């Protein structure tokens, strides 16, 4: 007679839909992971060669959402914490399935970030190659077209237009190259160039780095 409640409990988890809290818990975990993208990438950057994918935020997200769910559903209130639930093989299977889905989502975010870094590096290399050329300078803003350099202005078909005085291709190339090189000595990430101007100031070329 004492085994009947346990059998009913296990039967509930073996039903086709799984435990009743499964979908709500899965959805909240995914939403929390997506909303923590900036935190994930920051932790990934600081981890370096440390923890691999899956060891960054997934466990933390699962623990936090389990506490929220446990307090919101009467049937789960007061039950054991997530790590103690792992003793039940049926509940373990549900949690492992959700964990694998979260790890996959985490890896996709990291892969997208790494692709973005590779793209930035390729663009920077293309710009540096343009700086090395003897007669052409690739626009540091659009990274596609060549700059037109004249004594009184520097412009590009992308819309860059900066008034200058006594500018030459040699001077501009030297300025850009020295600035990018100085940054590379202190930071591994690629800088970006934009054209900026104040209300009463002429346009200027600004180099910035998100890191």
UniProtKB/TrEMBL annotation:
Keywords: Metal-binding, Nucleus, Zinc, Zinc-finger. Residues 8-46 form the RPA-interacting protein N-terminal domain. Pfam families: RPA_interact_C, RPA_interact_M, RPA_interact_N. It is found in: Nucleus. GO terms for molecular function: zinc ion binding. Residues 57-127 form the RPA-interacting protein central domain. Residues 138-210 form the RPA-interacting protein C-terminal domain. GO terms for cellular component: PML body. Its main location: nucleus. GO terms for biological process: protein import into nucleus. This is RIP protein. It comes from Sapayoa aenigma (broad-billed sapayoa). The lineage of its organism: Eukaryota, Metazoa, Chordata, Craniata, Vertebrata. The gene is Rpain.
């Amino acid at each position: 007679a004492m085994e009947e409640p346990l059998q009913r409990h296990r039967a509930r988890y073996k039903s086709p839909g799984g435990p009743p809290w499964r979908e709500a818990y899965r959805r909240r975990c995914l939403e929390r992971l997506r909303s923590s993208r900036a935190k994930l990438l920051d932790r990934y950057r600081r981890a370096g060669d440390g923890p691999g994918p899956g060891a960054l935020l997934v466990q933390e997200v699962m623990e936090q959402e389990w506490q929220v769910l446990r307090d919101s559903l009467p049937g789960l209130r007061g039950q054991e914490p997530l790590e103690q639930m792992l003793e039940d093989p049926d509940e373990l299977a549900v949690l492992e399935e959700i964990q694998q889905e979260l790890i996959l989502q985490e890896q996709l975010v990291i892969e997208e970030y790494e692709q973005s870094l590779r793209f930035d590096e390729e663009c920077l290399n293309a710009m540096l190659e343009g700086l090395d050329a003897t007669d052409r300078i690739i626009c540091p803003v659009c990274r596609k077209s060549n700059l037109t350099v004249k004594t009184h202005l520097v412009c590009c078909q992308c819309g860059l237009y900066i008034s200058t005085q006594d500018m030459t291709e040699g001077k501009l190339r030297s300025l850009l190259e020295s600035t990018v090189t100085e940054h590379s000595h202190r930071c591994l990430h690629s800088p970006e160039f934009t054209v900026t101007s104040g209300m009463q100031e002429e346009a200027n070329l600004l180099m910035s780095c998100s890191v």
